[in-house]
């Protein structure tokens, strides 16, 4: 192994190789600290050529590679195993925006660019890069593409997959696939880039991407709406889509229990209304026209919904600061749960039309099987994506409660399947759901995936033990 490390040091230089146990520690565990690995080394290449040489060296030594970006993934997909033989290939030093072509509405960026930096680079060019998620200050575009990240603007702009026109990928053979095309039309056979998007680093290392840009909105309106039930939230979604069409960019649902966790753990937050209600929707509209039109539209729509008693209350942000305050209620939910203690998490998607029935049915099944459980239900309702998390009943120690994980996963995921949904909407499979997916995907689909893996990565060096 020391010959391999010497070889890698000669490729990336001493600053690109980390081997000290203390320095390795942050790369060896995941954001939730659920998995703890033991990497042989962390390699931080600074160019595509360096990545290619490192991959070739690892292939020659039959050493497994775990690609890693911002390490904010939630399925343990960027964490090495505990064997002490795997290399973590961290892309963070590859952080250049190679080109912004405003006229083509594209941006070419290296894999290690932090998402927030890309949003900023697009804005400087008078454009929007719409991918947006609570981890955007740390996650990197290579990781976003490899997980096909979703986030808060999927409703209008699609998942990460829909925001990519071209890719540059280092294959498990060490060859570089130069697919950095900025074309919106290219029907020349199989769309190879789609293989690598959402592959969680199991088929190659994404080193750069051509990303789609959009007109920069000039006005926004944000509102928090109080509602009786998810069913009422769906009715509101339908109404807003009819009235506002593509100007609706975000439609997020959260329950009052989620709000109570945020208020408890983030002292700087405040409840949006003097009274509490069962559910809330956070809604964002944006328009390429400047002025107050969009706010007037949302206000008139919500007034009508209030008069018809479809909603219980509504607050429209009067300033950018208030809009940020509203968004923080939604964005702090993940961390607030972490402060509260472990719970049993599910990232599921359901056809939007069936989502309230799913919640009612599954809540009831859970209550029957595990009396008193508290549901942390929130998510991107406009995309049919729920974070459907199950917390311990009052008085039960969270660490004791999570011993029910297997039984609760079974109940929830079987219900998801009955409703025609998916057990991973946006976080991927990683190692967390690698076994679980075998119950829900057909053997034909799984075998096709295995065949692709064997063809692209015949020696199985690319992120083994993840996805499949
Ligand atoms: C607070 C919080 C909120 C979040 N909210 C959302 C959300 O709303 N929507 C959502 O979709 N996700 C969300 N996530 C999950 C996470 O941020 C995303 O999955 C993100 O896309 C991961 O990016 P990363 O750079 O951190 O990737 P990592 O965690 O480093 O890696 C994720 C996967 O991608 C692979 N990978 C990384 N870089 C490369 C590369 N260059 N080439 C090949 N493979 C690579 C890794 O091997 C691993 O399989 C959230 C996470 C946190 C902590």
What does this 3D model show about the protein?
- By secondary structure, the chain is an alpha+beta fold.
- The protein contains 17 helices and 18 strands.
- The strands form four sheets. The protein has a seven-stranded antiparallel sheet with strand order 15-12-14-13-17-18-16, with helices on both faces. It has a five-stranded antiparallel sheet with strand order 5-6-10-8-9.
- A hairpin with a 5-residue loop joins strand 8 and strand 9.
- Helix 1 runs antiparallel to helix 3 and helix 9 packs across helix 12.
- It is globular.
- The two termini are 27 Å apart.
- The mean pLDDT is 96.
- Flavin-adenine dinucleotide binds next to strand 3, helix 5 and strand 10.
Bound molecules: flavin-adenine dinucleotide
Q: What's the Cα radius of gyration?
A: 23 Å
Q: What is the overall pLDDT average?
A: 96
Helix proportion = 25-40%
Structural class: alpha+beta
Strand order of the largest sheet: 15-12-14-13-17-18-16
Shape: globular
User: Main beta sheet: strand number and arrangement?
Assistant: 7 strands, antiparallel
**What portion of residues belong to β-strands?**
15-25%
Distance between the termini: 27 Å
Give the strand tally. 18
Number of helices, counting only DSSP H or I runs of 4 residues or more: 17
Enumerate the spans where pLDDT stays under 50 for 5 or more consecutive residues: none
């Amino acid at each position: 192994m020391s010959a391999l490390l010497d070889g890698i040091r000669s490729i990336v230089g001493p600053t690109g190789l980390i081997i000290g146990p203390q320095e390795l520690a942050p790369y060896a565990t995941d954001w939730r600290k659920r998995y703890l690995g033991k990497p042989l080394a962390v390699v931080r290449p600074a160019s595509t050529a360096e990545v290619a040489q490192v991959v070739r060296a690892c292939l020659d030594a039959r050493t497994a590679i775990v690609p890693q970006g911002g390490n904010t993934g939630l399925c343990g997909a960027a964490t090495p195993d505990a064997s002490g033989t795997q290399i973590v290939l961290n892309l963070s030093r590859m952080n250049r925006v190679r080109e912004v072509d405003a006229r083509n509405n594209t941006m070419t960026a290296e894999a290690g660019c932090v998402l927030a930096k890309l949003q900023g680079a697009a804005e400087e060019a008078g454009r929007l890069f719409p991918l947006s998620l609570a981890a955007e200050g740390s996650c990197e575009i290579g990781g976003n593409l490899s997980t096909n990240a979703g986030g808060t603007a999927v409703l209008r702009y699609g998942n990460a997959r829909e925001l990519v026109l071209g890719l540059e990928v280092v294959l498990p053979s060490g060859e570089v696939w130069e697919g950095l095309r900025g074309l919106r039309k290219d029907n020349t056979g199989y769309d190879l880039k789609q293989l690598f998007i959402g592959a969680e680093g199991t088929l190659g290392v994404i080193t750069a991407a051509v990303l789609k840009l959009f007109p920069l909105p000039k006005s926004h309106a944000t509102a928090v709406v109080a509602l009786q039930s998810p069913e009422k939230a769906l009715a509101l979604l339908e109404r807003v889509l009819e009235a506002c069409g593509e100007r609706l960019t975000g439609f997020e649902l959260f329950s009052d229990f989620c709000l109570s966790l945020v208020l408890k753990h983030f002292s700087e937050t405040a409840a949006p209304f003097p009274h509490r209600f069962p559910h809330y929707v956070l809604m964002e509209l944006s328009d390429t026209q400047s002025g107050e039109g969009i706010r007037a539209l949302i206000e008139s729509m919500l007034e009508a919904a209030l008069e018809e008693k479809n909603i219980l209350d509504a607050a429209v942000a009067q300033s950018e600061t208030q809009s940020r305050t509203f968004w923080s209620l939604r964005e702090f939910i993940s961390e607030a749960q972490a402060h509260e203690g472990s719970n049993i998490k599910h990232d599921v998607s359901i056809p939007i039309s069936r989502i309230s029935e799913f919640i009612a049915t599954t809540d009831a099944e859970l209550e029957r099987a595990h009396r008193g459980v508290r549901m942390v239900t929130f998510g991107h309702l406009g995309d049919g994506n729920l974070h459907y998390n199950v917390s311990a009943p009052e008085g039960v120690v969270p660490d004791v409660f999570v011993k029910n994980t297997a039984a609760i996963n079974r109940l929830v995921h079987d219900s998801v399947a009955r409703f025609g949904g998916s057990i991973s909407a946006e976080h991927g499979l990683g190692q967390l759901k690698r076994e679980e997916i075998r119950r829900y995907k057909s053997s034909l689909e799984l075998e096709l995936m295995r065949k692709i893996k064997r063809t692209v990565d015949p020696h199985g060096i690319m992120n083994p033990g993840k996805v499949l």
